[in-house]
Amino acid sequence: MATALLTPITPGLAPMLPSLLPTDKYRGAVVEDLQLPPAFSLPSHESISRAIELAYDRDFSHIPVLNINRRPLGYVDVAALKDKWEAGIAQPNDSVVKYMTKFNRKATEPYTLITPDTPLADLAEFLRDKLFALVTDYDRKFVLAVATSQDLDNFVSRRGISG
């Protein structure tokens, strides 16, 4: 049987303890703990009518767009795409690549690798100025899932964790 050794806290140190410890409202959880559904992505040649249909079937608001080698090119904002279609700006058979937001691939904006093992605190930091994160394998060959701030909020509320 394993026994834990408890070190007594110096009486004057107890009130200062919370400020000495790093706060991690995710309690060390990682992206895999979010239990995200498998990624749904579109080939760059997909029509916008089909993209909108598939997005609503799966309740996705942003969908990654991949090239023929399954490398992420950008993403489609489904609501904006639907608005363009309804306004007559986009035609149902237009390719999604025409209306996608391209990912920046510049040396000044390095790629941030988000994998199933990425700590949720790191994901939260990434999502402070991004709509979503693509969760990939370590070699960035496959998009495994899409994570959002809402996924983090749901995780916190399911766990009863206060921030």
How would you characterize this protein structure?
The chain has 163 residues and is of the alpha+beta class. The protein is built from 5 helices and 6 strands; from the N terminus they run αβαββαβαββα. The chain has helices at residues 17-20, 48-58, 78-86, 120-126, 149-159; strands at 42-43, 62-66, 72-77, 101-102, 132-136, 143-148. Strands 1-2-3-4 form a 4-stranded mixed beta sheet. A two-stranded antiparallel sheet has the order 5-6. Strand 1 (42-43), helix 2 and strand 2 (62-66) form a beta-alpha-beta unit. The two termini are 34 Å apart.
Provide keyphrases for this structure.
163 residues, alpha+beta, 16% strand, 5 helices, two-stranded antiparallel ribbon, four-stranded mixed sheet, disordered N terminus
Residues in helices, as a percent range: 25-40%
Shape: globular
% residues in beta strands: 15-25%
| Count of helical regions | 5
Mean pLDDT: 83
Class computed from helices, strands and strand pairing:
alpha+beta
Q: SSE order in H/E notation?
A: HEHEEHEHEEH
